[in-house]
Amino acid sequence: MNKKEITEIKKQFKPESCAITRICGCYVDAEKNKKTELKEAFLSLSEEEMFKYFDIFRKTLSGTIGKNLINMEFPLEQESEGGTQEFLLKLRNSKLTDDALVESFYDKIIENYDYGENYYIILIHAVYDIPGKSSDGQEMFDASDEIYEHILCSICPVKLSKAGLCYNAETNSISDRIRDWIVEMPDLGFLFPLFNDRSTDIHGVLYYSKNAEELRTSFVDEIFGCNPPLSAGGQRDSFNALVEETLGDSCKYDTVINIHEKLNELIEAQKDEPEPVVLTKSEVKRLFEESGVEDEKLETFDQQYEVTAGEKSSLVASNITNTKRFEIKTPDVVIHVDPERADLVETRVIDGRKCLIIPMEDNVEVNGIRVHMNEQNSFNEEETFDE
User: Fold this and answer.
1) pLDDT tens profile 199-219
2) DSSP string covering 191-211, please?
3) Residues 13 and 54 sit within 8 Å (Cβ to Cβ)
4) Is the peptide bond before 276 cis (omega within 30 degrees of 0)?
5) Is the dihedral of CA 343, 241, 336, 356 positive or negative?
């Protein structure tokens, strides 16, 4: 799913276009005991409750694609009888009215969700009547010929509100505040099936993780049977290792800058596209070639890629570069540079020492204090930052 398709589904989470038919919920304590359950038509909830649930559902479809939101395909074995996809299809097709099936789903979550505190499992069923679109992109609500029937799951931590004082209107006094158990925004969630090309795609699931660096691979494996990609941080670390291993002694400042400038150019060129920029093994290799990496250094590239990132893995460009700043780090100094002005930083050997050279002209601040630079400033070549 891309940004436009996710946004289209999120628009259903409001009263005037609500497509939710049923909601089920299970409150679980820290010892994995089911404390209470909810099963009812969604529209039977009070307006205040509905709005709070809408916020949770929208949050479950928020974040960056490839980072917090992961499109995952089911392996073929999971689409056969007894597979994870078949179970989710049964759950969706039951419209959440099969109590035994819903309880079985709760049991799967409780068994595999590693969380030491209380939490609330929310499961909804919805039927979206997909409107047709005219040639100019306008929706035609009277031209629908397909429905998108789906389920959405949100797993929300439940935490005790903070202790404190409050104003008691009944007694007109300041008193101790009653502490409540508060349902927070989701930690994990998923949408099934996918909504691809504005149509139902039962071959995959959209997975949400609040913490992009903790995708809970064992949970993903047990609930979906899918192979999750590397986390955003894992992709960055793998890419950095790939650069270092491929270039070896030729891993120079200018080459690394060129690689990241090329990455930023790719992202900028496709910033208006709904799909994130994703690089396959061959595209990463071409990126290296265009950045000036010598052919002899690329002879073992394929092998290095498979070792560091995985044979069939791909890398999301926004996960492996920072489009807002370059970071240059030495053991004692960290320098942040606007990517568009990375050319300001030079490497030079002065008196036999490797140095980073940064022009210091006007608008210079030291600890927030503006200082004036002139030919007699207190810095000299001997005090240049060592690399």
Assistant:
1) 999 999 999 999 999 999 999
2) EESEEETTEEETTEEEEEESS
3) yes
4) no
5) negative
